[in-house]
Write a structure and sequence with these properties.
binds guanosine-5'-diphosphate, transmembrane, globular, P-loop_NTPase, 6-stranded mixed sheet, GTP binding, single chain, binds magnesium ion, Rossmann fold, 16 helices, GTP-bd, 49% helix
Length: 447
């Protein structure tokens, strides 16, 4: 069988099976110019790829409702990057929907929050607000960048009770439908957010009441958007916003990339979606390396990895400039920077970890997949440390960050051959397209 044919047939099939929709196939197709390029240029390529991924993100559009003072603005500022909304007691009650970020105040955050005036307004105003909500939804219909993805209806957990009127209002919101460019009508999901849930038992009780009422809300999520100091010794920690993000993703999966990028509360959600990116890059590496390629100029592998690093950076919402990216790339990949993974660096690492070997300067598809998984996983771990505040962004271009990334990469190499991703790739019958016994543990060095 012609190897090239086999590879081309195999790849889309594997891709469909293993991958999310995060990377597009065109992103990982060969780019010969990636061979042997210097580190500077490599960083440029990652940065320009990041830019194009960012530009490709459609806006996430959320309508947020609830009485004045329930904590809508505080919630927005805690869940999303960019500190978008004004907060504070006594913000003037208006009867118009407000948009964050303001259309005049351009940001490059692909997010629109429609902040609706309080439910406490009189019946006439309330019905006018509902009309406004409808027109916001209508205005977005048919346009993937503008259509409304979710309504967050906020209720203060410490409020004395929920009025039946408010439940009715929520039910009316649940009747609203929206659609994107595919024209397929979907009801707009409504999540009831129980804000300022300082007392957990109260939040649990309220959740029960709402769930047992005739409310049609898709979910009820208690949150505390900012920690609350009860007294000088007792502080209740913020919680629940990660659940809110995860539920929103579940109800509006088609906007998952953007949500992942702009939210700053669920590390789990970021990691999960980044791992889909790594899977795709690994599948590509497997296909590319299936016919053993001279490693020092493995352009195909390099483009898959450039795409992977760029996409993960965007999904983390991480703002990396060239110097930071250079620091990151050179740490795992050697300061020579001639290729994404310098041959010497890789041979040494592979020997060290017993993953495989670069036999006569060639690597097999499965070795390429292992390296790619390890690189992706190490990068996810590195950005996770920044997310948790264990590393500063400035550390990434310093010795500290470089050492850390090298260490993470080595550890990831040791484990990636045992990873589920790798196993599922192998179990897919991909060894069929491998040649010359270039599978893991079956290299010339081991023979
Ligand atoms: N500690 C703490 N304070 C909150 C929280 N949510 C709201 N607040 C406070 O409640 C007040 C009103 O919040 P704001 O977000 O402006 O309410 P909005 O009118 O619904 O936008 C502000 O003083 C906030 O500091 C929270 O989760 N934790
Ligand atoms: Mg507000």
């Amino acid at each position: 069988m012609n190897k090239q044919d086999g590879r081309e047939k195999k790849l889309p099939q594997l891709t469909k099976k293993v991958i999310g929709k995060v990377l597009k196939k065109k992103d990982v197709l060969p780019d010969k110019e990636d061979a042997g390029i210097p580190g500077q240029e490599l960083a440029d390529k990652v940065i320009s790829k990041m830019k194009s991924y960012k530009e490709d993100l459609s806006h996430l559009n959320i309508i947020i409702c609830g009485k004045t003072g329930v904590g809508k603005s505080t919630l927005i500022n805690s869940v999303f990057c960019g500190n978008l909304a004004d907060t504070g007691i006594g913000f003037p009650v208006t009867s118009e929907i407000r948009l964050f970020p303001d259309e005049n105040f351009r940001t490059d955050i692909p997010l629109r929050i429609y902040d609706t005036p309080g439910f406490e307004l009189d019946a006439v105003q309330r019905s006018s607000i509902k009309e406004q909500i409808k027109s916001v939804i209508d205005a977005g219909n048919g346009n993937d960048d503008r259509c409304i993805h979710c309504i967050w209806y906020c209720i203060n957990t410490m409020a004395s009770k929920i009025e039946q009127e408010e439940i009715n209002y929520i039910n009316e919101l649940r009747q609203l439908t929206a659609f994107g460019s595919d024209g397929e009508k979907r009801s707009v999901p409504v999540i009831i957010v129980l804000t300022q849930s300082i007392v957990k038992s109260r939040a649990d009780q309220l959740t029960k009441v709402i769930k047992s009422s005739d409310s049609l809300a898709n979910a009820v999520i208690p949150v505390l958007a900012r920690e609350e100091a009860i007294d000088s010794r007792t502080t209740v920690k913020a919680f629940g916003m990660d659940k809110l993000v995860e539920k929103t993703e579940e109800l509006a999966p088609f906007i998952s990339d953007t949500l992942t990028s702009v939210q700053i509360v669920s590390l789990k959600q970021k990691q999960k979606n980044c791992r889909s990116v790594v899977n795709l890059a690994a599948v590509t590496a497997l296909g590319v390396g299936a016919a053993p390629v001279p490693f020092a100029d493995a352009p195909l592998l390099v483009s898959a990895e450039i795409a992977m690093i760029a996409k993960i950076t965007v999904l983390f919402g991480f703002e990396a400039d060239k110097s930071v990216m250079m620091g990151i790339l050179s740490s795992a990949l050697g300061t020579g920077g001639a290729t994404l993974l310098g041959r010497t660096v890789v041979s040494n690492l592979l020997k060290l970890t017993g993953v495989g070997a670069v036999a006569g300067g060639l690597i097999s598809g499965s070795t390429a997949a292992v390296i790619t998984i390890a690189l992706g996983e190490a990068y996810i771990q590195l950005l996770s440390m920044v997310f948790r505040g264990e590393l500063k962004k400035t550390d990434l271009s310093s010795d500290k960050g470089r050492k850390k990334f090298r260490q993470l990469f080595k550890e990831a190499l040791k484990t990636s051959k045992d990873s589920n991703i790798y196993k599922s790739l192998s179990a897919d019958g991909s060894s069929e397209v491998l040649t010359e016994g270039q599978t893991i543990g079956d290299t010339q060095e081991n023979k």
